[in-house]
Amino acid sequence: MKITTAQLDAFSAVLDLGTATAAASVLNTSQPSITRAIKQLEDATGLVLFNRTKGRFVPTADARDLARVVADNHQGMLRIQEAAKGIRRRRIGHLRIALPAGLRARVHRPRLADFLPGHPHVSVFVRPLASIDIRNAVSKGLIDIGIAAYEVEAPGVRSTRFTECAEVAILPQAHPLAERQELTPDDLATQRIVRLAGGDPYRTRLDTLLSGCAGQTQALDGPVIEVETSAAACALAAEGVGIAVVNPLTALDFVPAGLMLRRLTHTLPFITTLVRPAQTGKAPLADAFATTLATRRDADLATAADLCAAQTGQAT
User: Fold this and answer.
1) Are residues 136 and 71 located together in one domain of the fold?
2) Residues 239, 258: Cα–Cα separation, whole Å
3) In the chain, how many domains are there?
4) Would you place residue 315 in the very low, low, confident or very high pLDDT band (cuts 50, 70, 90)?
5) For the segment 20-62, what is each residue's pLDDT rounded down to a tens digit?
6) Domain end marker among 89, 106, 124
7) What value does the mean pLDDT of the chain take?
8) One domain, residues 68 and 101
9) What residue numbers bound the domain in which 38 lies?
10) Following CA atoms 49, 53, 55, 59 in sequence, which dihedral angle do they give, to the nearest 10 degrees?
11) Which strands sit side by side in the sheet containing 94-99, from one edge to the other?
């Protein structure tokens, strides 16, 4: 005969309480059910576990020995229940997000502010990672949703274009070029540009554009100012160090610091990709956050376009 969990529960309760009636009360069942479960356990184990004396169950030495094993079994069941609870929390109540450092401030603060009121019990973990690390983490299932710079195509990753917007120039209100409606490559070439580090594709693209300008260029031939992120470039532009050419999402964060956005005559696309694990079932939290991201992205890009137009009108 097979040993069941109900038999072990009855055994433990009778061992602790001494009577079938008390055990039945604790386990919310009947006294005959407890008595029957004890008899079935004795038959299954081939052991006499209790001596019945005046309505009480007196445990035998075999019962004491078995009790230690049953206690270990109960602990194991509790561990299984806790493990299952943790898995449910990760599936239902956890969202793991990865973002490039340059986009983290602009993306995660307002987006989470939009997302969390509708998901108050969700635990959110935001990881700043390089784009290649985001791709790898997503492919391994370590991240639920991420935004990676540039185009991403990789095994184990489901990719969706997130942005393909034109970069903007950002400069202080007092800068002479702030009076222009839009800036040309020749305009930029005469200025000190705060640029991303060498090797960054956007830095390479900007250098190529400036190298085509006539004559010597301060942007390329003057002192070099390099930073790791677009946000750092904007911060230096706010201090009057130079002009930055950045994506409009990052630029928006620095408008309160007195910086102005200017369109460029030469379109420099800013491309990012929304990445998620390819092999997943339903992921309602990631779906909801992706919708929040898209809604806020559209609003931010519209705001940036309005600022370019409004600020241009003020300057002219």
Assistant:
1) no
2) 10
3) 3
4) very low
5) 999 999 999 999 999 999 999 999 999 999 999 888 999 999 9
6) 89
7) 87
8) no
9) 5-89
10) -30
11) 123-128, 94-99, 145-149, 269-277, 157-166
